[in-house]
Amino acid sequence: MKIAKRSSLTGSYVLGAMLLLCGRISAQVPQFTETAVVFRNDTVQLSGTFIAPRQSERSPAVIFLHGSGPATRAGARPYAEEFAKLGIASLIFDKRGTGSSGGSWLTSSLSDLSNDAIAAVRFLKTLDSVDSTRIGVWGVSQAGWVATLAASRSTDIAFMVLISGGGATPHESELYAYRSAMENAKLPKSEIDDAERVINMYFGYLATGKDRPALVAELGKDTGKPWYQYATLDRILPSEANRTNWSWVATWDPAPSIEKITCPVLLMFGDRDMDIPTEIAVRKWREGLKKAGNSDKAIVVFPGAGHGIRMREGFTGTGRPPFADGYAEVMLGWLWQHVVKKK
Fold first, then answer.
1. How far apart are CA 199 and CA 213, in angstroms?
2. How far apart are CA 233 and CA 115, in angstroms?
3. Residue 317: pLDDT band with limits 50, 70, 90
4. Domain coordinates of the chain in residue numbers?
5. Separation between Cα atoms, residue 83 and residue 298, nearest integer Å
6. Fold (CATH) for 2-169+253-340
7. Mean pLDDT of the chain
8. How far apart are CA 294 and CA 338, in angstroms?
9. Residues 114-148: pLDDT tens digits?
10. At what angle do helices 170-184 and 278-291 cross, to 10 degrees?
11. Could you give the angle at the alpha carbon of 109 between the alpha carbons of 104 and 114, nearest 5°?
């Protein structure tokens, strides 16, 4: 296993970075094609774009999975275009209930979302231009759990690239994110303890469906409290009918699924992530992959980086903060070594 800070990357990553910097990979495949596609998961039709390098041989392919909330294919396009230069095709698609895709992410479970990923794999396997033995998934944040469950269910997923996601349970990550926000705001311990009391009520409802009236009444009293703006639970409280679709946030443990993953895995984290507990996530990924007997994995932690490997601390510019130095080189170098060259 490789657990590296950016300053101690292995030779394979450095090789990939050198190739990119020299322009050799870009020179190999300077163009790409794109095709509008649709595929189905049961009754839900999903719409996307298939972006492929211009080459005669079959390409490896990657499916871009989504984080939490609504998401269209647009955010993945810059990655897909770069991957095409590397010789990798991409399927980018609108998350169910967004863009041109049917269904609703609001009333879908983790199982539904992971089955969307598996449906995308099945679709790619029907394309003559895709090497069906080299189809993988890429995801950030919540997609780490989606990909984990999908990979534990499908042996057709040949590799995984996950950023700031998985390992820790959703419950652990949610509690960590709330606490981090309140501590960063310098709320007193008494306020944080009061908030966590109510947060635990919320998770109790998600897990069991019990005591919803008491939770609603409690949240109605909390809107004026200092901690409320950091844990606006009434805005994300699912109805009784929809609660079962969200119970996984309180109950799901990714460990048994990780223990089934034997394909090559690249995991990237920031050591200043405010949304997921990086230390817990890394430890649990290590433990699970060890139990799986998976020796083809790499974990890279970027110093100073936050969620999504963004350098948020001290950033005062407009738009999104920049990625950590070396993020692209690590990812593209790993893909070159573990996917493109592995025929």
1. 15
2. 28
3. confident
4. 2-169+253-340, 171-248
5. 19
6. Rossmann fold (3.40.50)
7. 91
8. 14
9. 999 999 999 999 999 999 999 999 999 999 999 99
10. 160
11. 95
